[in-house]
Amino acid sequence: MNPHDEVDPQSVKVVVAGGFGTGKTTLVKSVSEIPPLTTEELLTEAGTAVDDLAGIEGKKTTTVTLDFGRITVHEDLVLYLFGTPGQDRFWIMWDELARGAIGAVVLVDTRRLDSSFAAIDYFEQRGITFVVAINEFPQDHQYEPEEVRAALHLDSQIPIIRFDARRRGSSLQALIALVHHALNRAPMAVP
Amino acid sequence: MANDEEWVDEDAGRVGRLYALTGGRVSPTHRQLDVATQFKVAAADLDLRALEPEQRQIAALCQRWLSMAEVSAFLHIPLVVARQLLSDLVDHGVVTMSSAKAGPSRAVLLEVLHGLKAM
């Protein structure tokens, strides 16, 4: 139905996850071509989705905030980067973000590894493609990826990279690692 | 972000009105929409006078391809409301949507990879 001179655009998603303070927003900000945008979704208090507006007036709702950015790969291909909501309990929102996504970059801060456990569990359990990105703070002790892998009990197949979320080039490398990993997994994907 | 708190209060009334406007009907298009699905007005010369203000705003925004998330962010409406308004606009032929996909193909992944490496 589009005019012939126009190509159907493609959009792809990447989920940026990790514990509080690991640098999710910093990553989105450093690579996005626009200042990150904020949107909101209404969920019921039980954490389920408000599917449509029917009967919404009778329900108690809560608002979940999402930050996202955008990278135009080329004229007809846009990559959206969605930071997961800070409130880990709203898994339904994660489901919506992860559906059809290339995968996730899970940020970890080596001073607080445990703050990213929930995110890692989420993607592991669902078989969703993800990489672990250690956001390095220069003043900290630099851990080897294999030390972090052992501490996180992470499967040997999951790539671990070290990067600096404040630097665009470094954040791009984290995204590239994810796309590489998605390509490696693609032939084995079950239809 | 003082703004956020303001509109949560007015939200109930606004969502209620938008619900009334769509009659609570859930369009089949609705389920196909994703936060990253993109939309663009179908033609430049559409008569938008019959549309609700929010729908006219969407038509004005979507002169270029924009995602549901962007429409929601720019108009300060929750995603659930953007989803409803956009699916109605698609059903009425006012906007065109990008085709829904279960996940990126290998070809698209390669395009993304090359694009990111070139940046």
TrEMBL record, chain A:
Q: Which UniProt keywords apply?
A: ATP-binding, GTP-binding, Hydrolase, Nucleotide-binding
Quote the InterPro entries the UniProt record gives: Gliding_Motility_GTPase, Gpn, P-loop_NTPase
SUPFAM superfamilies linked to this entry:
P-loop containing nucleoside triphosphate hydrolases
Q: Which domain of life is it from?
A: Bacteria
Annotated Gene Ontology MF terms?
A: ATP binding; GTP binding; hydrolase activity
The similarity annotation says: Belongs to the GPN-loop GTPase family.
Name-wise, this protein is ATP-binding protein
Q: Which organism is it from?
A: Actinocatenispora comari
TrEMBL record, chain B:
InterPro entries for the chain: DUF742
Domain of life of the native organism: Bacteria
Query: Which named protein is this?
Result: DUF742 domain-containing protein
Q: Which organism is it from?
A: Actinocatenispora comari
